[in-house]
Design a protein that fits this description.
Helix content: 25-40%
Organism: Methylobacterium radiotolerans
Radius of gyration: 19 Å
Order of helices and strands: EHEHEEEHHHHHHHEEEEEEHH
Bound molecules: iron/sulfur cluster
InterPro entries: CO_DH_flav_C, CO_DH_flav_C_dom_sf, Diverse_Substr_Oxidored, FAD-bd_PCMH, FAD-bd_PCMH-like_sf, FAD-bd_PCMH_sub1, FAD-bd_PCMH_sub2, Mopterin_DH_FAD-bd
Shape: globular
Strand order of the largest sheet: 4-5-8-6-7
Protein name: Molybdopterin dehydrogenase
Number of helices: 11
Keywords: FAD, Flavoprotein
Pfam family, one: FAD_binding_5
Length: 316
């Protein structure tokens, strides 16, 4: 690991200003992804701005009937909160489907949203990777791509967004709140937060340089059966091959988003009108533009079957 300097600012705006004034500075909270990346020298920050002391660790009701989740709420605490368990079951289930108990104790809400891809070529510094080193090429395109994206990818990068929590937040229509170095605040719908790679796969999100996430707001609860189903290569501590976050009502209407298939949580709202007809009409529309590789075409059928299982679960 390369040496770096460290500071603990007093307010969110001070933290953003500290990152803004130091070239190649990074925020650190739980550190569950960043420290791994630093040890591998994939990330080499010169300065770390520790945001753990900023008090952004509350879950509070909003005047609209929803909840405002502080950026530093630990994943374990969010999944265990009685309001989340009662009214946002899809979110609680998605969080406990991710990582391990120890990691969830440490990982934060904002950090979970910002975790980087788990494409194996991204982590292997002997391989070309446009996301790690822009312009170097993509080792996965002609390599092993079983885990990687079937939709939303580009010729530059076919990596998936690896998280579970954000897939549930996408189906809940969550909004991300930020502050910048001048104290300016901004709200970003989760649907606009994670970027598709295009020809700039090194940029994962629409956050501006030095902008700090302060909270995630959940709208008022959506009635229906909340389901999160995750299919993976082993029963725990593995990323999704395919996951489904769904809220399904008795009349057959509902919402659904998919994880493990794209560079961001993948939701096509127009397809949700077909939920009452079964899984296939929905996944045919959701994946109409899919371009799977020879290794991962199985994900299309797996997504249909995972959604079918969720629909059966809701009926039961
Ligand atoms: Fe890098 Fe993306 Fe290619 Fe993986 S898929 S090697 S992250 S450019």
């Amino acid at each position: 690991m390369k040496s770096f300097t460290y500071e603990r600012p007093g307010t969110p705006a001070e933290a953003a200003a500290a990152v803004a004034r130091t070239p190649n500075a990074k925020f650190i909270a739980g550190g569950t992804n960043l420290l791994d990346l630093m040890k591998l020298q994939i990330e080499t920050p010169t300065h770390l701005v520790d945001v753990n002391g900023l008090g952004l660790d509350k879950i509070e009701p909003t005047s609209e009937g929803g909840l405002r989740v502080g950026a530093l709420v630990r994943n374990t605490d969010l999944a265990a909160d009685v309001r989340i368990r009662r009214d946002y079951g899809v979110l609680a289930r998605a969080i406990v489907a991710g990582a391990s108990g120890q990691l969830r104790n440490r990982a934060t809400t904002a950090g979970n949203l910002l975790q980087r891809t788990r494409c194996p070529y991204f982590y292997d510094t002997a391989q070309p990777c446009n996301k790690r080193q822009p312009g170097s090429g993509c080792g996965a395109l002609d390599g092993i791509s079983r885990q990687l994206a079937v939709v939303g990818a580009s010729k530059s990068c076919i990596a998936t967004y690896p998280g579970d929590m954000a897939v549930a937040m996408r189906v809940l229509d969550a909004t991300i709140e930020t502050v910048d170095a001048r104290g300016g605040e901004r709200k970003i719908p989760l649907s606009e937060f994670h970027r598709l790679p295009g020809d700039r796969p090194e940029v994962d999100t629409t956050l501006r340089p030095s902008e700090l996430i302060t909270a995630v707001t959940l709208p008022k609860p959506v009635p229906g059966t909340h389901i999160y189903r995750k299919v993976r290569d082993r029963a725990s501590y593995a990323y999704a091959l395919v996951s489904v976050a769904a809220i399904l009502a008795k009349d057959g209407s509902g919402r659904v988003a998919f994880g493990g298939v794209a560079p961001r949580p993948w939701r096509v709202e127009a397809a949700e009108a077909d939920l009452a007809k079964g899984a296939k009409p929905v996944t045919d529309r959701v994946f109409a533009d899919a371009k799977p590789t020879h290794d991962n075409a199985f994900k299309l059928k797996l997504a249909e079957r995972t959604l079918a299982a969720a629909l059966n679960q809701a009926k039961a």
